[in-house]
Amino acid sequence: MIGLAIIGLGNALAPHAKAVLDLANRVRVVRAVARNAEQRRVAAERYGFLTSDDAAAAIADPRVDAISILTPTDSHLEIAEAAFAAGKHVLCEKPLDTTVERAECLVAAGRRADRRLAVMLQLRFRAASQRLKALLETNALGEVQAATMTVPWWRPQAYYDEPGRGVKARDGGGVLLIQAIHTLDLFHWCVGIGSVDAAIVRTTSLHRMETEDYATALVRLGNGAPGTITATVAAFPGGPEQIMVIGAKGVARMDGGNLVVSFLDGTEDVVRETVGSGSGSGFMAFSHEPHKAVISDFLDAIEQGRDPAIPGEEALATQRVIDAIINKGV
Q1: 48: domain range?
Q2: Which of 81, 152, 165, 285 has the fewest CB atoms in 10 Å of its CB?
Q3: Which residues pair with 120 in a beta bridge?
Q4: Are residues 51 and 167 in the same domain?
């Protein structure tokens, strides 16, 4: 039984909490920590967690083997460093931190401490994602000729009126780093991103915010083929994220959790899964099952002394791509 402390009890809590309760035969929440009294009340009443406002005490607790960091982005590094220094493993919500430099420090701290670091980029664990990755790895689609990624999401202004949201100092970025990072990480995992050749990054008139709500980029994939990336939270009412991979033997189209692969020989490969994506104003409207898969793999990694399926270095690579798009789009 692995003892877990959850630090941060805001919007990100629900899928994490549901996942660890499903895994109650493997993991026990020793303490759930937040400064906000109302968040502590909800965590206690809804999930039965013992709560506290003392993160340092939770990290030092000898019953705690691992820390889940669900706090705002700008606090991830310091919490992770304290956890690693105390000999704890870390599961970090995306992104790693606000800048590539801080993210690098976080990953390095885990390696120095020889502790496991997993990152919550759960789209990799969807059934459709796993199938697409397998088709690409076995060359069933043939050589990749081109690929596109689109995140046509929506957030109302009320979302950004909440303190800290869309503020660079706290979040580190806008749609790319906070929302589209999931799909971009999946895209990167499947087809690779070798370089960012051109980009446009903007804040539309639909939002009053400090960071971007629209970004588009022309990239070269891992094999040098062309790729495009478009992400926004200004596309009312919001729709599922999409990935299309054009291969020499067929085309794969992923729409949310659904995958349709049309081969040139007339056959199809289909995966259908109604999972939700949080694409609209109900931004937490999605299944917690992919979260559960990430956490289960994290527990396996702790027990087996291996890297998690999504280690810090891979999350860092995705964040570097985001940084490159932002810098190219300025």
Answers
A1: 2-120+296-304
A2: 285
A3: 93
A4: no
